[in-house]
Write a structure and sequence with these properties.
This protein is an alpha/beta fold. Helix content is 36%, strand content 15%. The protein folds into two domains: 430 residues, no CATH class; 50 residues, no CATH class. The strands form four sheets. The chain has a seven-stranded mixed β-sheet with strand order 4-3-2-1-14-15-16. A five-stranded mixed β-sheet has the order 5-6-9-11-10. A two-stranded antiparallel ribbon has the order 7-8. Strand 15 and strand 16 form a beta hairpin. Helix 6 packs antiparallel against helix 8. 41% of the residues are buried.
């Protein structure tokens, strides 16, 4: 165990393209405008931790650093792009992922410059792939990222070194022998990548990265409803009444056909999710062991750990088509149409024996709407419905890796709590999220996890911290653990810390 290692873990930056203001729709994707970029805050953060470092720093970029799902820019006059991609964004073929990476690099020069300078000082950057940047799997995309940072591209399979300045990890990384770091999407049924060791599939003879269901929903639905911020679930998961209020306030004039946009986007998501789910992975049996060894080396693990941790992943929600149809509201759409059709049939049959006005259709419609409304009100979204780390999973991670600390991202909810033998941290998020399309009501703050040497030399201590660049002391500790110290107490949750309890 490396007890003198300083590790900083950040996640969920969601770097995407810059959205230019549209005079016809002034609030359309306002959250993507340059004025809300986090590049300067991140540059200040890197400068701060580098100035206070007593040695090399291990910077873990723990998933969803880039948001390939939210890039809508198109190459000019390319006949290989179909109509759906022009409407909702490019797919995940290699050249399309390269184009999206190029757009992100061009629109965020300050971010790449700052990280490149940080690495040039001898510090290390470890990219742990998440669900929104799963297209980082392509080696050519990784090379583009390395070139933008001025860093050497990692060696080929089997040639990795422990001191490589930049590392790409498929879904996890073991830091210092005491901390298991993963974005967390592999424990979310809506966003799990079915086979992170071999994530490529082939459709119509073309290899592409298999994109999870939740990310396909962001592409084909939320990209067409630009008033909803896909980076914060509170922005797009509402009740029926809340959706109606939102529609009349923001969309009636600029997007009156929202229901049609949602309906075909939802059907596209359902179809593509099921089609890609049942595709077999492109797996070369001669390279399976080499890939596992490469993942193990880059992740500071063993091949046995890689296989066992891969077996811990939850089944994809696309195993149950009805579940994802319900998540997309397609079940309620179908039942509503069925209710109206049944009411019309009742009136038609009565009209055969006794002529009545077609307006009588409202009577059976209202009657049939009662069970429909009862069902609709009983359905709850499953986004983050269950915790990413259960006690059973925590115990297995501890037994497989020996790590007593787990750091996730993904949920955008900062957290510090004890789960079985594991101290669980969630590093929160960095992308700016707002509760309103006007981007005036900020949600959350930029948070990160800092793992530092303990004062008594017995092990490392982790802090959940908040970063506020404008303040004199920009780093504020929210919660601290002491799992490596003798007689350690379980870590407090963030809620306990905010109530003023001592985070011992």
């Amino acid at each position: 165990m490396e007890t003198n290692l300083h590790t900083y873990i950040v996640s969920d930056m969601h770097l995407s393209e810059a959205e230019e203001p549209d005079p016809r729709r002034p609030l359309w994707m306002a959250y993507k405008r340059r004025e809300f970029f986090i590049d300067d805050e991140f540059a200040a953060f890197l400068e701060h931790i580098a100035q206070n470092a007593t040695g090399p720093i291990e910077l873990l970029l723990n998933g969803d650093i880039f948001d390939f799902d939210n890039v809508l820019r198109m190459p000019s006059n390319d006949g290989r792009i179909d109509w759906l991609e022009r409407a909702r964004g490019l797919g995940s073929e290699e050249w399309k992922s390269q184009f999206k990476m190029k757009v992100i690099i061009e629109d965020h020069p300050r971010w790449f410059e700052a990280l490149g300078q940080f690495m040039a000082k001898g510090h290390r950057a470890v990219f742990v792939i998440g669900n929104h940047d799963v297209e980082l799997y392509w080696p050519s995309v990784q090379r583009m990222l390395c070139d933008a940072l001025g860093a050497p591209f990692p060696p080929n399979i089997g040639e990795e070194e422990d001191d490589d300045p930049i590392v790409f990890c498929s879904w996890f990384y073991l830091s210092g022998g005491d901390t298991y770091v993963s974005h967390g999407h592999q424990y979310d049924p809506n966003c799990v990548v079915r086979d992170p060791i071999d994530p490529l599939i082939e459709i119509r003879g073309k290899p592409r990265v298999r994109v999870p269901f939740g990310d396909l929903a962001a592409r084909y639905m939320l990209n067409g409803m630009g008033y909803f911020n896909p980076h914060q679930s509170e922005n797009y998961i509402m009740g029926g009444v809340a959706y109606l209020r939102f529609f009349f306030r923001y969309m009636l004039r600029t997007q009156p056909l929202l229901i049609w946009t949602w309906l075909w986007g939802a059907y596209a998501t359902l179809w593509i999710s099921l089609r890609t789910h049942w595709c077999h992975p492109m797996r070369d049996p001669l390279l399976v062991d080499d890939k596992v060894r490469s993942i193990a080396t880059r992740s500071q693990a063993t091949p046995s750990m890689v296989r066992k941790l891969n077996a811990l992943h939850v089944p994809s929600a696309t195993n149950n088509p009805f579940r994802i149809a319900r998540e997309l509201w397609l079940d309620r759409a179908f039942l509503l149409l069925a209710t109206l059709f049944l009411a019309w049939q009742v009136v038609l049959h009565i009209n055969i024996a006794w002529p009545i006005s077609p307006l009588w259709v409202f009577v059976p419609a209202l009657i049939f709407m009662l069970p429909y409304l009862a069902y609709a009100s009983s359905v709850r979204p499953t986004v983050f419905d269950t915790p990413l780390l259960s006690e059973r999973r925590a115990d297995l991670i501890f037994r497989i890796t020996g790590a007593r600390r787990v750091v996730f991202g993904h949920t955008h909810q900062p957290k510090c709590e004890q789960v079985g033998p594991i101290t669980l941290y969630n590093g929160g998020f960095w992308s700016k999220a707002f509760a309103d399309p006007e981007c005036t009501i900020r949600i959350g703050e930029q948070t990160f996890v800092w793992i530092r040497p303990g004062t008594d030399g017995s092990g490392r201590i982790a802090d959940l911290c908040e970063w506020k660049v404008a303040e004199e002391s920009p780093v504020r500790s929210l919660c601290t653990d002491a799992t490596s110290a003798p007689n350690a107490h379980p870590a407090h949750t963030l809620r306990d810390t905010e109530r003023g309890l001592s985070p011992s």
